Amino acid sequence: MIDGAKLLEAIYDITEEKKIDKKIVIEGIKEGFQKAYEKYFDPEAIVKVEIDGNTGQIKVFKELTVVQKIEDEWLDITLSDAQAKYGADVTIGDYVYEPVEFGSEFSKLAVLQVGQIIKQKIREGEKIKIYEEFLEKNHEIIAGIIKDVTLTSYLVEVNGSIISIWNKKMIPGEEFEDGDRICFYVEDVVRDSKHSQVQASRIHPDFLAKLMELHVPEIAEGIVEVKSVSRDPGNRSKIAVFSHDENIDPIGACIGTAGARIKEVSKELHGERIDIILWNEDKKTFIMNALAPVKVISIDLDETENECFVIVPNEQLSLAIGKKGMAARLVANLVNVKINIVSISESGSRNIENLWNGNITKEQLESSEFINNTNSRKQKSKFNNFENKSKPAQPVVEEVHDEIDEKLYVEEASVDEIQSYADAFEDLANDEPEDLTVEINDDYDSYYED
User: Fold this and answer.
1) Residues ≥6 apart with Cβ < 8 Å to 222
2) pLDDT band for position 1 (50/70/90)?
3) Under a CB-based contact definition with an 8 Å cutoff, are residues 341 and 310 in contact?
4) pLDDT cut 90: percent of the chain above it
5) Are 370 and 386 in contact, with CB atoms under 8 Å apart?
6) Which parts of the sequence belong to the Transcription factor NusA N-terminal domain (predicted)?
7) How many CB atoms are located within 10 Å of the residue 429 CB?
8) CATH for 78
9) DSSP summary character for residue 424
10) Model confidence pLDDT, tens digit, residues 227-241
11) Same domain, yes or no, for 292 and 321?
12) What is the bridge-based pairing of β-strands 161-166 and 153-158?
């Protein structure tokens, strides 16, 4: 027989350890006894199980149909027998419940069934708990402690639940150890999944957007709005911002005093360099803002096809495209437009019309000042890159007025904007792209699909 006291103790332990409802455990025990009876006695039987909440005593009853003549002795009872056992009010067609006496053999079978069902109930209960707990945190940043590191993922404990962050959702190059604190963005929460109910990511564009919200009060308060984000995780990102208060500079607010705010965000992203771009409702202006410090000679936007052709100076084509097309890809994802970038000389051979509607005139383009300064920036970037290869990584924001010609590239630019331009030239110095014309593929990254 089942020890009632031990049963109650087991129910308590399970509910406390697994943090699931006591009712779920009790229903699992009842279901286990029902299945045990079906296997041991009669698979067609209808069984009712009762558990005394005070003593833990289990009672099993089988349902019998009151009939005039018995056809199945396991399921039927005669009217006379039913009235003798359950009272004179019983009539033909009624159902009565007969206690089932069971010995040690049935008890063992029942315990096995209960064990299997309880495990299943625990898994189901944990899934419900995780779903209900994390659903309200969907599309937010949460933090936890790393409990284990496997070949494919990091296992993170958050309020007693274990969340998996797959390696492909981690920022390239970053490493954590057991006991480290880690924060991540919740992409989605699903009720049931073979792998992980909570889809966690550190590479999602909105991870950066939410980090900015945490570190920039103006964003949290809705004064400054993050319009779009584009990332090459761990390497570089662009974030477009707009201020709803004309007295608040959105770029300055995001950067913070001496770059304090943007440095903290970059630190969390494993040193990812972040360009703050001024959003503009005019898409052409927005694209030119996103391409800076590259000057745009001509921009032809087809809004119907959501595609544009951009002509840039020969001297800045490589800078516009970046290493392996990264710079152009970041811009395309930021503005959500397919961008084709060509040099002015290439545009002629490809019969691409030059509209001269960009942010540099023909006179400025042909000036010796533009050419000399562009070449000078490249040479300085290459020299600085060679000189600093063995040095520790520098902060995201530095004072580099002496390295950038403000008159040529920016108007009333902040120190931090200028630094981003310097970083762009250093990227160029590291690796020149092989193909000088890049067409951005719409399905480059699923995060940026419409």
Assistant:
1) 244
2) low
3) yes
4) 54
5) no
6) 7-127
7) 19
8) 3.30.1480.10
9) H
10) 999 999 999 999 999
11) yes
12) antiparallel
